[in-house]
Amino acid sequence: MACPISITKFVGTISLGLLTGISYNISAITLPSLALLPTASSASRTLAQIQTATTRHVLTFASVSSLSLITCYSLAAARGKHPYLLWTALMAFLAGQGLEYYYNGLDRFPTLRRSASSERAARSYVMVTDEDEASVNGEKVEMEMSRERRVQAVRALISGLGFVMGVVGIWGDGA
Length: 175
What we know:
- With 175 residues, the chain is mainly α.
- The protein has five helices and no strands.
- It has one domain (4-174).
- 77% of the residues lie in helices and 0% in strands.
- The longest helix is centred in the C-terminal third of the chain and has 37 residues, at 138-174.
């Protein structure tokens, strides 16, 4: 039977790897492809959808990773409390919640309860309606895409560093 501490290390490291993959995919493949859309309004709607879905997944994987690694560190015996667990958990937290708050404030953090009007107001800064389709500024959409690409590239770098630390740490534990 596998040790629960080993399982939490594995779950934390795999979640960090998935976070790295999502961020790299968004910055290197998805966002550059948005520039090929025919209109600025469709690019704006697609970017808003990508940002919403990405934030949800990034926060989930970062939380799972950092919580499982912190749990592993706190439950481990004295000889099993390796500092790489804390550093890897810190990288997961910084790549997820840290960068999200630094670049976007509390705007994209999900809340437990929202009324329909406050949810519409929260989405109004990125969602485009049919009436606003003619007034969408392509340069602003392009600037937002490049900003989001930089954020995702930094996130991929930080989470990738944490993932490498986790893999090397697990490898060292098994040796």
